[in-house]
Fold:
Amino acid sequence: SYGHDSVLNLLGDRDPGSLMVNDREGNSAAHDATRHNRLTTLKLLVERCPSLIYGMNREQLRPCDFATREEIKAFLKESEKASMVPAVQLQNLAKETRVLNAQNAVLAFYCRNYWKPSGEERLVPLTPPKTKEEHHMEWQSASAEFLRTMSKANILGLHRFQDRKRHDSFTAFRDAIKAECKDYWVEANMEKWVFSTGQGLERALIEGVDSPYHTLTSGKGSAPYGDGIYVVREASLCSDDVVSAADGSKHMLLSRCVTGRYAVGKSGMERPSLLPSSNTKTYHSSVDNVAEPMTFVLQGDHYLYPAYLITYRD
Structure:
């Protein structure tokens, strides 16, 4: 990033995902700009990709840990403070749509192609990369997605869930939804990475008997947007529901999700709303807000693939 602001502007326009690339030490362009006291470059990067301020290198250092110039320290502090305001989170999410799509592609690629053969462990521990190895971008992408709204959390562990049969089933279902949507299909709107929590996540993933997702109904608990499995777009939105273990650690699940076509749900609905001009077919899922959906209500765990289990402490 050093001294090449015009190049960064060009990359931001043509290939924003490239701004998320890290070097062999795990440093992002934001780390580099901060270390070299390039405030203008840093502002450009954060404007394009706000979550860069939360990215950690292999030594678990964020860009703010490299700051020596007071103006840069103040800028990073204000950027982090502003990013925690819900309205600003929505604006940042809109800015990063193309960048997040690039991250999603990386996560989906590793999820499908870099697991061990069938029959071995279902939860594979990942470690912060110490060299430029095969899982470098996987750790960086998954942790960045979590830390984007959980900047004060400390990630204790990151595990990839490996179940080829389940992944193939999810992919087939996703393709069927895409075919059904036809011209309505918009990948950025209908395929997401989402967060959820609940008790016994690790056991459910390892044993494969119980679902790692929990269904809410109007008769058994709060279901403000109808009955179904509740997942959210931002990790911070479900952090209050996480139950701590005896050692103070917490678990959260990062999943691939196909939402299909959706409409606003309401309490008491047993299924999504009917499609316009139909007496039988419904939308695929329900949401809190069609324009900027943050909460999705799904009609079964076949809409989801539980890709990563995140262990953390507040």
